[in-house]
Amino acid sequence: MPVPREAVVWAYRFFLGRDPESENAIIGKMKLEDEVRLMQEFTNSREFKAKRRDLVVFGNFEADRKEKLSAPAGMKTIRIREMPASSLRNGAERISGTITFPLADEEKLKDVIFSFHGPKEAESLTGVEIVLKSVPALYLAISDSEQKVTVGEKCSGRWIFHLWGPAIVQIGDRVTSNGTDCFINPGGSMLVGDDCMFANAFVHVGDNHAIIDAVSGAPLNYSPNARIEFKKHVWVASRATILADTTIGAGCVIGAGSIVKGNFDDKSLIVGVPAKVVRTGVSWTRSYEGRGAEDVLEMLNT
Question: Which parts form a coiled-coil structure per UniProt (predicted)?
């Protein structure tokens, strides 16, 4: 198809600089395309994704901005949305809450993961408070308002917390875990005393699902304020499962694979499915040869 003479004339005039109107229009279009490209590159950049939670106001965030945060000496408090971008999953940046941690451990925040789950809107959640006097590796699945987690000093290891409603978790000082998985029902509380040691155990503060009477339909296992408490210096061995409404006395040992429910006295060896006390008047040390036994006995007797 022959090129129209008008197009040849326009091209000739344009490239000779004799058609400034067309030239300016094309240059303007090129600049606009460049600006759009640069904007796309910026919005896809790591820097933008890290800052975007400070650029958008969701739900209660405007009130959050006006509230001045404070922390004890040597500690720092930030809002959850100010966590590293890699620590916020599934919309967790929209949760209105705070995390407090030691200034010296700020680089460890990368090991703390927040994930939002549940039927509620993330921006409707308020009163979520995480206080870490030390910073172990944590995975916090947040689903509701008024969820409180406190971790004491010199704690280490890995924890996974599934918080299904308003709940309280309190971990004492010098507590270790090799990957304990904790499920906490609405209204539940999990209390761990000082110097406890967990392997890869399971803690169920509530059953998560109802068992019902086949005639009346009434729930048989509902506990609105379920509670599990580990007194000081408790050892929970591999794959042990602790069920709701249980208290483990100071110095106890829970055997591997045991399923535990009920109240147990201090210095008991608890083993089996279902678990029972197989020996009393015992405790444990972190060293395999029993080093540190005197310190353990002194701690348990004070």
Answer: none
- Gyration radius (Cα) of the chain, Å: 29
Comparing CA positions, the residue from 195, 205, 199 lying closest to residue 296 is 195
Rounding to the nearest 10 degrees, give the CA dihedral for residues 277, 279, 283, 289: -130
Map tokens 């010296």 to a residue. 104
Question: What digits encode the pLDDT tens for the residues 38-52?
Answer: 666 766 665 555 555
Q: Mind listing the pLDDT tens digit for each residue in 125-177?
A: 899 999 999 999 999 999 999 999 999 999 999 999 999 999 999 999 999 99
Measured in degrees and rounded to the nearest 5, phi and psi for residue 275 equal: -75, 145
Say if 293 falls within a structural domain.
yes
Note whether 84 and 209 are same-domain residues: yes
**Residues 258 and 130 placed together within one structural domain of the fold:** yes
Q: Does 158 lie in the same domain as 213?
A: yes
How many domains does one find in the chain? 2
- Tell me the per-residue pLDDT of 222-260, one tens digit each, with 9 for 90 and over: 888 999 999 999 999 999 999 999 999 999 999 999 999
What gap in Å lies between CA 213 and CA 186, rounded to an integer? 22
In a domain, 61, yes or no: no
Q: Phi and psi of 65, rounded to 5°?
A: -60, -35
